[in-house]
Task: structure prediction
Amino acid sequence: MKKLSLYQIAAKNLLRKRTRSVLTVVGIGLSAWVLASLLGFNRGYDAALKKDIDNMGFQVLLTAKGCPYEAATLMLKGGTGLRYMSESVIDDILLQREVDSVTPMLMQAVFDPDRGDSGAIDAYLGIDPATFPGMKSFLKFKQGGWFTDPAARVAVLGYEAAELEQREVGDKMLIPDKNIELTVVGILERSGTQDDGTIFVPIRMLQKEFGQQGKLTAVGIKVDRKADTAALENRLYDLPDVQVVSMAQVKNTIMSLVATAKVMVLSIAVIAILIAMVGVINTILMSVFERFQEIGIMKSMGAMPKDVFRMIWTETIILCLLGGALGLALAFGLAQVTDLLIRRLLPYTPTGRLILIDVPLMVTTFAVVLGIGLVSGMYPAWRAARVRPLESIRSEGD
Amino acid sequence: MVEDTPALEARDLRKVYRRGSEEIVAVDGISLRVARGEFISFIGPSGSGKSTLINLLGCLDNATSGSLRVGGEEVLRGGRGLSEAALTRIRRRVFGYVFQRFYLVPTLTLYENIVMPFAFFRKPGAAADPMPIIRFLGLEKRLRHRPGELSGGEMQRVAIARALVNKPEILLADEPTGNLDSRHGEEIGDIFKTLNEKEGMTVLLVTHNPRMAARARRTITLLDGRMA
Result:
């Protein structure tokens, strides 16, 4: 004999008003989507930011006091404002026990009148081929490779720099004003970092050609994994005429900037969840009111209040689980769209995936949605459980 | 002496409803003994208290005063009744109900509607297979249909099958042919008669229809809440 369970009755009841059930599921789905995307954003943003900072290759950056340490800042300042420190600072840094390795850098900016309509600033980053590539091991080459001679007139172009200059490996390029011809020996793949727009050249050559022998604009410091980075930073502050840029501080600054946006999105998620809850309560309560007589008949057949409660609660939970599945599907399917929207809204976004939806997040979303179902279903289920069989037949006539 | 114990025994049953300050006496001191295997029809004009009485006898409602025993078990004494849960346990065990409206679940098939009581409770001794009941009611060819695809007579037969699957001792029917044409009404009347005569089932039937009432072995006429 084919059996019919309470849960089957509950599931089939939802088919009675399909449009209403579907709209309720969509409402819950949208809430679950917002929630999953928010939680995914929290995880994804942190992970992407951490990856970006790790990809810098060093945990601490030392620059000459007042010197911009990002190419973007340098551009904003029109290529001026560079400050220098002596190469001898490297010896002082290497004395610190927390230091694993260092890489010296010299940035120079040149105005190129032939770029764009009114010219633009070209930034050249002089690097040490012995230490820099090791720290930036994540950088992959599209063509060629790193140079090895620190004094050669060669260049490695970041992906966007190569696109802009329309260069291939083997091409020659000229540093404006200086009439120095460089040979392109490598072109990097896109990394999503500021390295994409950088022209890397050997540091010794750059120092010599720009008359900056023995001078640096920055030193990247890779800290030993087990070392106390904060203690190292404190001692580096004591060095004269240098400023310490801690990547941990950079991360914290960015995170505090983003925190406001996160709170805003969280508020939207909470409101969406509350709206979904009201929607669920409304749907189930209407369904209970419409079925008062039917529920009464079920009780006359022997259904206990707990049976009716369970049946109505099951209906709510089914709606919520379907909504949860829809929300997760939306979160998965539209993650890239959400990613793009967030990138437009936030002042800074890291380069990796901003929305990271994994199994724990799916479980969390489902748990929250299930919680919504359990809470929302309580009142309608309680109302239904209280229906007396006589209420259903009182109108039968006397 | 179970055989001698009456199926139902009511004494001075009284049911009073209040509507504002007005008191409406729906059942006014009815005493009644229903033996096992009896077929009783209740007739009377509208508002005479037939449905109220059958609801009280079927433990769907508690009387305002009086006493009621179901199969020897005290359900009501001096107007003090059992809890809703206790009444449900008695309803599960003793009664099957058929109403004027069918109250079938439109999203369930005919078969699912019939076996729905098993989702809540399965009485020990209930039929392991509902097919004999389904065949008896001539519904075996429409098991996959939904209520919307059935005629009124078929829907009422489904409601009867649903009332029978848990093998009730007493079948209560309140105007079961009220929504049916005369041909289908006759069919339903025959079903009750067969259940009573062949199965020995106690049947209490409320009806306006004298032809239906004539199928019962005993007819009780009610007037203004009292037995006439």
